[in-house]
Amino acid sequence: MNRFATxxxxxxxxxxxxxxxxxxxxxxxSTHDTERGYALAALTGSLSFxxxxxxxxxxxxxxxxxxxLFGLSYDFIGDLSETAALIWxxxxxxxxxxxxxxSLSTVVETLATLGKAELPNRLxxxxxxxxxxxRWALLKLITGGLRIGVSARLAKTAIAxxxxxxxxxxxxxxxxVSPPYRELFAWAEGRGPRPEHSDPAPxxxxxxxxxxxxxxxxTLDAKDFVAEWKWDGIRVQAVSAADExxxxxxxxxxxxxxxISNAFPDLAExxxxxxxxxxxxxxxxxxxxxxxxxxxxxxxxxxxxTAKMVQDFPAAIRAYDLLxxxxxxxxxxxxxERRARLxxxxxxxxxxxxxxxxxxxxxxxxxxRAARRDPAALGADAKAIEGVMLKxxxxxxxxxRPKGYWYxxxxxxxxxDAVLMYAQRGHGKRSSFxxxxxxxxxxTGPHGDxxxxxxxxxxxxxxxxxxQIDAFVRRNTTNRFxxxxxxxxxxxxxxxxxxxxxxxxxxxxxxxxxxxRFPRIARLRWDKPPREADRIDALETLADGAAMxxxxxxxxxxxxxx
Amino acid sequence: MRAYRASxxxxxxxxxxxxxxxxxKVLPEGLYCPSADVFxxxxxxxxxxxxxxxxxxxxxxxxxxxxxTPETLAIxxxxxxxNFAGSTQAVGYGExxxxxxxxxxxxxxxxxxxxAQILVxxxxxxxxxxxxxxxxxxxxxxxxxxxxxxxxxxxxxxGLPVFRHPPLSDEVQKLLHSLAQFPQQTHLxxxxxxxxxxxxxxxxxxxGYEKPIxxxxxxxxxxxxxxxxxxxxxxxxKISPGDGALAGExxxxxxxxxxxxxxxxxxxxxxxxxxxxxxIRARARQRGVELPLVVSDHADWDDLCRTIQxxxxxxxxxxxxxxxxxxxxxHVQGLRAQPLHMVGYGDEGEAEPPLAQESGLL
Lengths: 562, 362
Prior knowledge:
Chain A has helices spanning 2-13, 17-29, 33-43, 54-62, 67-77, 80-87, 104-113, 119-129, 132-142, 152-160, 167-174, 182-188, 216-219, 265-271, 293-300, 307-312, 335-349, 365-373, 463-475, 536-543; strands at 210-211, 225-231, 234-242, 248-254, 276-286, 289-290, 315-325, 328-329, 354-356, 385-392, 406-410, 414-425, 434-445, 448-457, 477-481, 484-487, 496-501, 503-506, 514-517, 520-525. Chain A is α+β, with helices and mostly antiparallel strands. In chain A, strand 18 (503-506) and strand 19 (514-517) form a beta hairpin. By secondary structure, chain B is α/β, with parallel strands linked by helices. Chain B has a 7-stranded mixed β-sheet with strand order 7-8-9-10-11-18-19, covered by helices on one side. A 6-stranded mixed β-sheet of chain B has the order 1-2-3-4-5-6. Chain B has a 6-stranded parallel β-sheet with strand order 14-13-15-12-16-17, with helices on one face. At the A-B interface, helix 1, helix 2, helix 5, helix 6 and strand 14 of A face helix 7 and helix 9 of B.
């Protein structure tokens, strides 16, 4: 447990992806099999401990500490697991009776079989044996809240770094292996055979697109490509097949391979028996009309799936591609062939929950540009479209983000002119820069016009622009709150950003009542006085569904950054 | 506390059977001993001051006469210039001076070089003003000595039971391990200029690290002073413009510099910070610290409690820090205890870093 604790302790503070990768790789390379296997399971969210609840931790700690001191400490720290880990008193015991630290394997294997009644004493004994970091890691682990900024993908990339295989190859076998992953490690280190799938409905790594650049149109031939709408939903992979006993297994995976079937039982049921693996977009489709992302989000935000929710927010899939069917891997086949077979499968299945995503007809790039600008003219649900996808007609389905096959050509973002209000220091390489910006727009307040914060952005600018903004923040600070500086924002003095974003929704969590999707700094408007920045009314109109542009950026200075 | 502040005329008649609050009073300037007409660690300029240690919140410039250990006087001289006080008098560890009817003895506090507890004695009454102190090993200063007393005046910087400082060797190993794992990155460590920085250097040397340790210019004078007092810190180099990015090297700087533009010269620096506050994750994150090193020059909770018990004091005064928890603990132990609510301490050294207040964003 100690080494695992040290690892996640370091990961929790480390902002750099590459450094995280090194920490993970070194840990996996120097830790023995069972232990590293459970660590991988913990990092990829493959473990769950049902009986360890915060209330239990509170009870255990309360029995061992002065309630006043515990209360003062909890107020000071604000995190139950951390407070409990730090305040846990050293057990009084003879010096030669130091209990052995539980290994991560011991913890995982014991908790798998331990009865609920035995848990408190067992947990207390472990807490006695561990140090502060070990206790913190144990409590975070069993209450399911590691939150250390490591994605499952990053953990798998670190596994790939142990040997000759690419991260996508690890993804490919991932759903056929289970904790503690002995055969996976053996294969990853070049010591054993490739693990074979025993899962009838495994996840297969998805193919991703590059954002298209203006210059790409000069080198790409429109005749080589087909286009599809890029729906604004959740990219999913739907897989349904029968296991050895003939039982049908149906799963919905996110594009990172998380099983999200439980959130959409209605959809999983409707897809049972397709006997294929399909790549598509999960959308809410009411009366044949695709709803926008805000509507989908209303279903995503609920923890429990109720019958009413299923009825009010019916989920469906618009299918893009075919990965597996008829007992064969279709990924090697060209897109055209895959699409033809997909068409048949969708038709034969005959469910309103599974539709083929239509192709966008075009002969030249200009025709496609026109279609992208006005999807409604072609009969598509424009509110749910975030652009078009270009796919080489002869391309195989390749995992990852290979160059030259698929391109996304997103709709122009919305933009708003907003005023910089607060700036916060960044992390890692940016720790000496004020690089996270809170910006606001004007509204009518009790004492006249005032700025209300509407969003936060920390990218979209170049390194040179970052230096300029940083210098501006330092010269125009009006107040300091720890790592945050308030920056001059009067009608006449301040810095205006052109902020690009993908959408807006109503939100009670924000002061302005609005939540911005994917905001980034598109341009610095040194030329513009803050009084000329936008007003909240315009954003509210947008949030309420008007498909208007606030300020349409010209095609040339459009900058879509991901 | 109100009752204690009731003023009682000073004079010999009260010497025997004197109450502790007759011997030491809380005034806006700091703790005051009327019978000797002297303040201890006053936060404003006064005529006569006894100084426990050289941190700027305890040792301020501009007093008339200053009495302190020779090391503390040297530190004040480096920080404020030779004319930091009208006159100075050095009192070594174990030595006593008598002012009026009151005797003052300076005893090592283990906090930083020259740090002292001051035993205030009037007849049978003994009050120990401990200043800031720690019990953990420190190769750069004399170790804390327990002085039996009636009243123990203690700090409570880390006066919550969540503060238990880990073994120092673990923290230094964390640093050296990171250096081995990330040899292309500068390891930039924020450490308070007086005490922490030099203790950290000594600890790194104890762990066997032999390469030069680079320092920010603001640390130079105090580090040289430590060395001049015979403390071996190995090769310490002040950073010069020709040093380049210092990839894979250790650089120590004042905490205020770890996020300063000054750091842009280094090779993708890993930001470390040596402080007892690094025990708390949110504190480390607020400061953008990537490698928190829990190294403190203050007593942790267990040592605060242990020290109170070992002094045998029946009454505890808590100067600054998390007073509530420590006072509560004392009461549970059956000891009289009160917070002195002293203002002005905790500005240097391991003062609690400013909280990132809710700035009302979004």
